[in-house]
Give the backbone structure.
Amino acid sequence: MNNLIETLEGKNPAYSNRYRGIMEKYAMVGGNAEKLKEETGRFFSNAYEFYMYAASIGMRKEYRLPLSGETSTAWNVKNWRPVDIVHYLLMGLLDKSGIDFNEFEDMTHEQASSVTTSLRIALEEYANGGFDMIQSKLKEDPYYFDNEYGFVQFLKELK
């Protein structure tokens, strides 16, 4: 199981560039200090934090949206913080995947690589689904997430 997690942590998941605008509006793309985040009015210090938020929304709502068109990549998963939340997100992804971990241990390198690629794709699709839900909310109310509690409220509204 640790090899599976380590392999997933070595991935750089992507997201569709159609969400680049909301990524740049609400997250510090390229990462920056907490103080700069506050000075610029961003809600997430790093793009990967927003990515994790979007992926968790997509997973919660079982909403996967395949990548299309041009993409951008998020930072390598092994660099995401806080680690506990990253592991929680990956465990949720593994749970939804239905992978038989006993079989995974006996797979060849090529088979295991195929599984981890499918998990990376699932993570990307869940994140894109989450970004799509955020973008849809913004179409309903362009200022919804400008409230300091907007992102928390959005989670509360998900059923």
Notes: The radius of gyration is 16 Å. The chain has one domain: 2-149.
